[in-house]
Amino acid sequence: MSADTNPPVREVPEDASGVGGAQPDPVSRVASNPHPMARRARLQALAPIIFFDVAGPLAVYYGARTAGLSTVVALVLSGVLPAIRVVATVLRHRRLDAIGALVLSGVALGIVTGLASGSARLYLLDGIVPTAVLGIVCLVSLLSARPMMFRIALETIGEDSSKGRAFADMWRFSSFRQTFRVITMVWGSMFLVESAAQAVIVETCSINTAKNTSTVLPVAVLVLTFAWTGAYGRRAQRRGERLVAEAASHDNASFQVS
Question: Taking CA atoms, which of 12, 71, 79, 245 is between 20 and 30 Å from 100?
């Protein structure tokens, strides 16, 4: 073969690697950054959640009960701290994400229903409704053009930013689409399982037990599901990189033969 002859180029099928050439698999954008600084940042981000959504509300609830306030009033007061955290986040970032909206709607619905009915169990049950609705919306969105978790991720990144536009452009890759469909299915299922479990606890256990689980369970579910999402993204990234490497190796072999 002469030196000025262009080598034959074999196009990598999109469905095989998710890319149209020897580029990094776009699913890598979904994976969590394993760098120690990233882990530290995640731990720092969890600190206010632990205080405002777990430890603080429980302390307020049991403190109010010890002070002689009714169960419903104690439950209402315990919902103030999570609402404060969400409002502060909205003011800082100038936007309300899906999780924040879920927290605020649950607190608001519980306060209105609890004070109107005077029922602690109804207060706790109404707080479950937004979570169940979000789970249903996630699963139903699988029938739409783009699933809910992709839309939430795009909103979080910023649809009008350069990163947001690059992120949205990756929807054309099949591996990227499949990854977000699986992620959306898992998140929707987890929301529904959490709601069902909490509803059973509210109906069958004491109010104190139901309050404890209604505070701890949502945070535990979020942490576990986020951890799974990161692990799943990393596996998808490695799978895509392996397919790209195999395709590149095949191209080199074809070039040498020709």
Answer: 71
Per-residue CA distances from 203 to 70, 107, 120, 130, 208 (Å) = 19, 19, 11, 18, 12
Domain spans in the chain, listed from the N-terminal domain onward: 34-244
Q: Distance between alpha carbon 99 and the CA centroid of its chain, in Å?
A: 8
- CA–CA gap between residue 226 and residue 39 (Å, rounded): 13
Q: Which of 15, 17, 36, 14 is nearest to 236 (CA)?
A: 17
Q: How many CA atoms lie within 13 A of 163 on its CB side?
A: 8
Task: Tell me the pTM.
Answer: 0.70
What whole-number distance in Å separates Cα of residue 92 and Cα of residue 94? Answer: 6
pLDDT tens digits for range 159-188: 788 888 888 888 888 888 899 999 999 999
